[in-house]
């Protein structure tokens, strides 16, 4: 009976694990919904901003902002958005894979690379690699604010202003749908001109105080809003990935329990049979 | 019927107001401005203060903005509001904090990124994932 007992404790422990994973699945599902709402809420701002900037860039040719003009890439900066916690399937590994591939392509061209990481997983991975991490942000929680990204983004913007980097990319997980999240590399600086649609006729704003001031403020906020959007999107991805991972963990626990149940019943049956045959044999001997 | 214009007040985190209005009053950098429909194109930074939107039903809606940007076109007014407190020194302090965090965490710094190492680590992680996948298939099958 010892064997059956062992199996029974194993079943108990797996049942407990299944309870935890299914609870985590449900928590992740509700968090994902909230994160998706935040993702949608953040969109109009970015769109409006893009419209205004594209207009400014075209209506005001005498002042060209540095963020709009491409220059030779000698140093490249990345802002890598990852999750703070694990247990979310291949989510972060996919981002790392994409970033490392992209970084290698740049370094083959002779460009040096600076990193800013958002999320603990990213900083741990790139630190282990010995990458040059100039700034980092961690533990932003499930509902980060724009103020959480201002610091890390500013580090990169300053670097760009001072010519220490010539390109800036943002890497995050793109929320395609609940089942699919794909890592995406987006160029932040210089602002790509395809994004800025042409103006059909010419007119200009009245500026207060002047065009330069307004455009500076706008561009900084624009980049911040893009990073914020990436961050929020990544959180939605994290929760979706975790939900799926926990769902499959729950399923696996279920099938494992079924198997063990079968083994348990067999063991029990064998023990009974053995006992019976011993009794019969004993009776025959008398 | 009074003339109206479309007003959008958005922040990076959410949409605050969207709808028709007969007038909008905002604290622009060089003084308060009142915008009515068919105003000529105008763009300005905002100071901390109150934005008032008068809707066609005669009601006034008040929103507080800490700073931001207002963009005016003849029939559309957009207020891009900041949710965070903004100032140059505050921004710089935030940037410094992010840098310090990275420096503090940096214990062993290598000169170059070892791509071979990165690839091997990634391969390892991918192999682990694949093993899990196989395991799952086996237990199902």
Mean pLDDT across all amino acids of chain A: 88
Amount of beta strand of chain A = 5-15%
Helix percent band of chain B: 25-40%
Distance between the termini of chain B: 71 Å
Largest sheet of chain B: 5 strands, mixed
Oligomer: heterodimer
Number of strands of chain B: 9
Can I get a quick summary?
The complex is a heterodimer of chains A (286) and B (141). Chain A is built from 5 helices and 6 strands; from the N terminus they run αβαβαβαβββα.
Care to describe what's here?
The complex is a heterodimer of chains A (286) and B (141). By secondary structure, chain A is α/β, with parallel strands linked by helices. Chain A folds into two domains: 2-26 and 244-285, ATP synthase, gamma subunit, helix hairpin domain (Helix Hairpins, Orthogonal Bundle), CATH 1.10.287.80; 30-243, Pyruvate Kinase, Chain: A, domain 1. Chain A contains five helices and six strands. Chain A has a five-stranded mixed β-sheet with strand order 3-2-1-4-5, with helices on both faces. In chain A, strand 1 (75-81), helix 2 (91-108) and strand 2 form a beta-alpha-beta unit. The longest helix of chain A has 75 residues, at 211-285. Chain A is elongated. The two termini of chain A are 26 Å apart. Chain B folds into two domains: 5-81, F0F1 ATP synthase delta/epsilon subunit, N-terminal (ATP Synthase, domain 1, Sandwich), CATH 2.60.15.10; 113-141. Chain B is α+β, with helices and mostly antiparallel strands. The N and C termini of chain B lie far apart (71 Å). The mean pLDDT of chain B is 81. At the A-B interface, helix 1, helix 2, strand 2, helix 3 and strand 3 of A face strand 1, strand 5, strand 8, helix 1 and helix 2 of B. Strand 6 (206-208) of chain A pairs parallel with strand 5 (42-46) of chain B, so a sheet runs across the interface.
């Amino acid at each position: 009976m010892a064997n059956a007992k062992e199996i029974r404790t194993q079943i108990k422990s797996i049942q407990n694990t299944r309870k935890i994973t299914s609870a985590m699945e449900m928590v992740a599902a509700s968090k994902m919904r909230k994160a998706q709402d935040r993702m949608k809420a953040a969109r109009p701002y970015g769109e409006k901003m893009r419209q205004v900037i594209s207009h400014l860039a075209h209506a005001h040719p005498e002042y060209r902002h540095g963020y709009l003009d491409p220059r030779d890439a000698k140093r490249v900066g990345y802002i890598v958005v990852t999750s703070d916690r694990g247990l979310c399937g291949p989510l972060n590994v996919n981002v790392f894979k994409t970033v490392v591939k992209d970084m290698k392509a740049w370094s083959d061209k002779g460009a040096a690379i600076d990193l800013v990481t958002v999320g603990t997983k990213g900083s741990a991975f790139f630190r282990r690699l010995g990458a040059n991490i100039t700034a980092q942000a961690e533990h932003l929680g499930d509902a980060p604010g724009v103020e959480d990204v201002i610091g890390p983004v500013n580090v990169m913007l300053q670097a760009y202003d001072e010519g220490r980097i010539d390109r800036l990319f943002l890497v995050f997980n793109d929320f395609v749908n609940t089942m699919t999240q794909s890592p995406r590399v987006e160029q932040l600086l210089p602002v790509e001109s395809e994004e800025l649609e042409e103006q059909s006729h010419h007119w200009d704003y009245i500026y207060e105080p002047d065009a330069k001031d307004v455009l500076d403020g706008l561009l900084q906020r624009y980049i911040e809003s893009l990073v914020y959007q990436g961050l929020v999107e990544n959180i939605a991805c994290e929760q979706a990935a975790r939900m799926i991972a926990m769902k499959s963990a729950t399923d696996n626990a279920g099938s494992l329990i079924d198997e063990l149940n079968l083994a348990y019943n067999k063991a029990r049956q064998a023990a009974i049979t053995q006992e019976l045959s011993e009794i019969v044999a004993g009776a025959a001997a008398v | 019927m009074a003339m109206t214009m479309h007003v959008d007040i958005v922040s990076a985190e959410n949409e605050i107001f969207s709808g028709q209005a007969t007038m909008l009053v905002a604290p622009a950098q060089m003084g308060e401005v009142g915008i009515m429909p068919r105003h000529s194109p105008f763009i300005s930074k905002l100071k901390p203060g109150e934005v008032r939107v008068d809707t066609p039903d005669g009601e006034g809606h008040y929103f507080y903005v800490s700073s931001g940007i207002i963009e005016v076109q003849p029939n559309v007014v957009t207020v891009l509001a900041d949710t965070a407190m903004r100032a140059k020194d505050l921004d710089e302090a935030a940037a410094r904090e992010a840098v310090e965090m990275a420096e503090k965490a940096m214990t062993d710094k290598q000169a170059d990124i070892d791509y071979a190492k990165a690839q091997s680590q990634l391969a390892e992680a991918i192999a682990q994932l694949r093993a899990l996948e196989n395991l799952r298939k086996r237990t199902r099958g």
